[in-house]
Amino acid sequence: MLYLPPVEYFIELNKYKNDILLEREEHFPKQTYRNRANICSPDGVLALVVPVVKGSKNHTKIKDVRISYDFTWQRLQWMSLQACYRRSAYFEYYEDDFAPFYEKSKETFLFDYNEQLLHLLLKLLKINTTINYTPTYEAVHPGLTDLRSALSPKIESRFNQKPYFQVFEEKNGFLKNLSVVDLLFNQGPQALNYLS
User: Fold this and answer.
1) What angle do CA 77, 80, 85 make, to 5 degrees?
2) Is 148:134 a contact under the CB 8 Å cutoff?
3) What's the alpha-carbon Rg for the chain, to the nearest Å?
4) Domain membership flag for residue 1
5) Is the pLDDT of residue 172 over 60?
6) Which residue among 113, 147, 176, 178 is the one 20 to 30 A from 155 at the CA level?
7) Does residue 2 form part of some domain?
8) What's the domain count of the chain?
């Protein structure tokens, strides 16, 4: 379960929408999209990181990783999203849908927080799918396309993404494979066509 997943994730999810199996039994891997997302800022890519409770990183199942509220990360991330996307065509259209995740939500577990965001994103993108979850951890899922480690913020994606308008494109050029909120805030209802 990823935090505000990249566009590539939703292209794959839309492709396999009838056979989605999300991992919740794996051990929490550090420095992944499970607790970070990349957005477009005036200075280029800006990483938003959901802090986790210390000790949640070593051999803790992803579903048991706790969010840390030692500082006001939600407020800072919401301010970043507003600053980066206020000028986009559709931010105001979706603002009320995302605000509760940064102003009110105090989910204990990262998995639950990400799951709620994923359901919101599927609804806003109009992707109809049924989400199923792994009952146990399996290193290999025969017959399934395994995307658990295919997307990593540490490795540049080879995903050949077609450009769409981005708010700071004049300054940064097109930044590929950002969080799907970048696509949503810039393309609005047309985002689903882009993902097809």
Assistant:
1) 125
2) no
3) 16
4) no
5) yes
6) 113
7) no
8) 1
Q: Model confidence over 175-192: pLDDT tens digits?
A: 998 999 999 999 999 999
- Residue 91's nearest CA partner among 156, 167, 146, 36 is 167
pLDDT digits (tens, 9 = 90+) for 99-110: 999 998 889 999
Distance of CA 189 to the CA centre of its chain: 18
Q: Say if CB 39 and CB 156 are below 8 A apart.
A: no
The predicted model scores a pTM of 0.89
11 in Cβ contact with 195 (< 8 Å): yes
Domain that holds residue 74: 7-195
- On whether residue 71 sits in a domain, the answer given is yes
Residue 43, in any domain of the structure: yes
Q: Say if residue 115's pLDDT is above 90.
A: yes
Cα separation of 79 and 77, whole Å?
5
